[in-house]
Write a structure and sequence with these properties.
The structure holds two protein chains of two kinds.
Chain A (H helix, E strand, L loop, with lengths): L4 E2 L1 H12 L15 H9 L2 H14 L3 E5 L4 H10 L5 E5 L2 H6 L8 E5 L5 H7 L2 E5 L2 E3 L4 E6 L13 E7 L3 E2 L2 H9 L7 E5 L4 E2 L7 E2 L6 E7 L1
Chain B lengths: L9 H10 L1 H25 L2 H17 L1 H14 L3 E5 L2 H14 L4 E4 L3 H5 L2 H7 L3 E4 L2 H8 L17 H12 L7 H18 L2 E4 L3 E3 L4 E6 L3 H5 L5 E7 L3 E2 L2 H15 L7 E6 L12 E7 L22 H4 L2 H6 L10 H12 L1 H4 L11 H5 L6 H18 L4 H12 L2 H13 L11 H9 L10 H15 L1
Parallel strand pairs in B: 1-10, 2-3, 2-4, 4-7, 5-8, 7-10
Antiparallel strand pairs in B: 5-6, 6-9
The chains are: A alpha/beta, B alpha/beta.
The complex binds iron/sulfur cluster.
């Protein structure tokens, strides 16, 4: 059902009056493309993208690994074992479910598909695990299109966060994502670009990690 | 608190700013770090000047067709099931927001950073109907705990406070028992706020950019608090200044790039979150209700004037971080939640010349702000426009121009300020082409026959100036 719009006409009349213009009958937009970013994205080979991505990740304090699909469960469990891990919140979509198959059962693995439980679970989880829709080489970011079984809270509320990055999802920069999203019929309700652990420099410009979100972030690139 | 943060006179405010040595040192080192981070991030792009040009074009186009894009935005949000409220005044905005709070019987509100909610005094309005409103940005939380100490910087609001002061405030008000180490203070804040987040009824966010075509609002943070605010509570309200819109994702991407690099020197901020409508059927989390409040509060009056380009501002604070006057007097001196060059232009426009007449003079016109601005707003030229307008206005009211020129001296006649202008120009010369540096000021001083800078210390000059005050001119 459509939401309500209040007081619009009066408000926009005032804007128009001050701009000294009439109502645009057509879309005023000239077709905009970013000419600067385009060429850059095409220059990089897949291996160069991996190199740039891991390089940037390191600068952001993200620990990264690169494994074959068959070694993925082992690598995840290695990371979990380094900490006092009990609960792990995981995206409930097909892809993520299949990627984390084979984790040892000494952890409580929670696939978050229930809206009544997800916040409580994620809040108390030691780790959150998700895949990603894109990864950006330039900024060392993962891009998460939250929808249905891909809950927002998993990459946010747990103490630590692991992003699984299928190698072919690597692209150069945010420009490429924007282009894709512009062409979507239905834009996901929540898209997150995440680049490192939650942090702040609000106290004397001293960088501190783990303000509201995860204190540590791990990337596992999957070949 | 509204936009105005002090009832003290401009002189008293600058005086306490100048006398606060810690504040000045902290501000200067913060400025240095942010400035060089920005320069590195800009250099890294290789073609920064072209990005700036793109940013300028996008902002120019959008504001020129603001009515169209706001209509599109509100149609889209409504299609997605969100509600949109257009508010011309703070009263209209607050009435709507408190009405939602009352309907939801909300007791507690968590809020991420938003300048426009400060501008309209939203917190007070919500508190008046019995809501607890909690700021969740670390810097803003600290200020709130300290009995609403006003912010002094638009990106780092608690810049004027040191760690010992923060520890003391926490001890006194929150029973904190830890040390003054930022890490410990932060951990404590996390625990305090996490609990509040999980119980909050309403989340209120600002909006860095709204995307008209898809009905999206986007938020940038490093802390992740805006994500919590828009993930946990069942109701989300986003409050935006009406100029904060872009046409499509393609333009959005350019401005996000400019914003992250210019404000903190990062390639992207740690979290960039784009929210499109309330939770859809079948989704596991996100708010059930979404309200977008679009605020005018004096902005439409700027449209069609010589100051229109100040509405292009993306609130990155780059101009603040290069400003030699800001570094000397600190953020509180501006008497407004918008300090620095952007504040010196915006505050008189939104709040009137009466309250903010000195601000356009709190500048050495060195031009560093204009060179730093990622969307190429001609900041120091707008400052000159303000001065001219005020001179005109005062003439009409038959007051002497000299009264106003006296204020101009605040920036121009003092050797220290003059030197600061020169230094700043040298510092930013890597940004090439700073021809207008102190030169523009020279033009002014020549044509208006101003005295050359005298050789005396700033404080002494300031003290003298104050003593001689009104009688000398
Ligand atoms: S005026 Fe320009 S430099 Fe200053 S905050 Fe706005 S966009 Fe940034």
């Amino acid at each position: 059902m459509n939401g309500k719009i209040h007081n619009r006409e009066r408000f926009l009349d005032e804007v128009r009056e001050n701009l000294n213009k009439t109502l645009d009958s057509d879309r005023p937009l000239r077709k905009f493309t970013n000419p600067l970013a385009k060429s850059k994205s095409q220059l990089f080979s897949e291996e160069q993208l991996v190199e740039e991505f891991t390089d940037q990740s390191e600068r952001l304090g993200i620990e990264w690994f690169r494994v074959n699909k068959s070694d993925l469960a082992q690598k995840i469990s290695d990371i979990l074992a380094r900490f006092d891990t009990m609960r792990v919140s995981v995206w409930n979509d097909q892809e993520t479910r299949s990627m984390v198959k084979g984790l040892p059962d000494n952890y409580e693995i929670l696939f978050e598909g229930d809206s009544n439980q997800v916040l409580g679970h994620a809040e108390t989880a030691d780790f959150g695990i998700t895949t990603c829709d894109y990864a950006l080489a330039e900024s060392g970011s993962v891009v998460l299109m939250n929808s249905r079984d891909k809950a927002r809270a998993i990459s946010l509320l747990p103490k630590r966060y692991i992003a699984l990055v299928p190698k072919e999802r690597l692209i150069y920069r945010i420009t490429d994502v924007a282009k894709e999203v512009d062409e979507m019929d239905q834009v996901p309700t929540c898209i997150n670009f995440i680049s490192g652990p939650s942090n702040s420099a609000d106290i004397e410009m001293d960088l501190v990690v783990g303000v509201h979100g995860p204190m540590e972030v791990f990337y596992i690139i999957v070949d | 608190m509204g936009m105005k943060i002090s009832d003290q006179s401009f002189e008293d405010r600058t005086k306490s700013g100048i006398e606060d040595l810690f504040m000045r040192e902290n501000v200067q080192s913060a400025q240095d770090r942010l400035r060089s981070a920005r320069l590195n991030a800009a250099e890294d792009m290789g073609d920064w000047e072209e990005w700036r040009k793109m940013g300028e074009d996008i902002r120019n186009h959008t504001i020129q067709h603001l009515d169209y894009y706001l209509k599109l935005l509100s149609d889209k949000v409504s299609e997605l099931g969100g509600h949109v409220h257009f508010a011309r005044t703070p009263e209209e905005a607050n009435e709507y927001i408190t009405q939602i709070a009352e309907e939801k019987k909300a007791k507690s509100v968590v809020k991420s950073k938003s300048m426009v909610t400060e501008e309209i005094g939203m917190n007070e309005a919500l508190e008046a109907v019995g809501c607890e409103v909690l700021e969740t940005d670390l810097g803003e939380y600290i200020l709130q705990v300290d009995e609403h100490d006003p912010p002094s910087h638009i990106v780092a609001p608690a810049l004027h406070k040191n760690r010992e002061q923060i520890r003391d405030v926490y001890q006194e008000r929150l029973g904190y028992e830890g040390t003054e180490e930022p890490e410990e203070l932060t951990r404590f804040t996390r625990e305090q706020l996490r609990e509040k987040f999980m119980k909050a009824d309403i989340g209120i966010t600002g909006c860095n950019f709204a995307i008209a075509e898809s009905g999206t609002v986007s938020l940038v943070t490093n802390e992740g608090n805006a994500r919590l605010v828009s993930t946990v509570p069942k109701t989300q309200i986003t409050v935006m200044g009406m100029e904060r819109v872009v046409p499509t994702w393609k333009e959005w991407e350019v401005l996000i790039t400019l914003l992250a690099r210019s404000s903190v020197g990062q390639k992207l901020t740690t979290y960039v979150t784009a929210l499109t409508g309330p939770r859809q059927k079948g989704e596991v989390d996100g708010p059930d209700d979404f309200h977008l409040v679009i605020v005018d509060n004096g902005r439409s009056k700027i449209l069609g004037t010589e100051f229109q380009s100040i509405l292009h501002c993306i609130r990155c604070a780059a101009c603040i971080n290069v400003c030699p006057v800001y570094s000397h007097v600190g953020g509180h001196s501006y008497g407004s939640i918008y300090p620095g060059p952007v504040g010196a232009i915006l505050s008189p426009l939104l709040g009137g010349y009466e309250d903010y007449k000195e601000l356009p003079y709190a500048s050495s016109l060195c031009g560093a702000c204009t060179e730093a601005c990622p969307v190429k707003i001609p900041l120091h030229e707008l400052l000159v426009r303000h001065r001219e307008n005020m001179v005109e206005k005062e003439k009409k009211s038959e007051m002497s121009e000299r009264m106003l020129m006296k204020m101009f001296k605040f920036g121009a006649t003092h050797p220290k300020f003059y030197q600061l202008g020169v230094n700043a120009a040298e510092k930013v010369s890597r940004e090439k082409d700073i021809k207008r540096g102190p030169g523009l000021m020279n033009n002014w001083t020549q044509s208006r026959d101003f005295p050359a800078p005298k050789k005396e210390s700033f404080r002494k000059w300031y003290a003298n100036r104050k003593q001689n005050g009104r009688s000398s001119s």
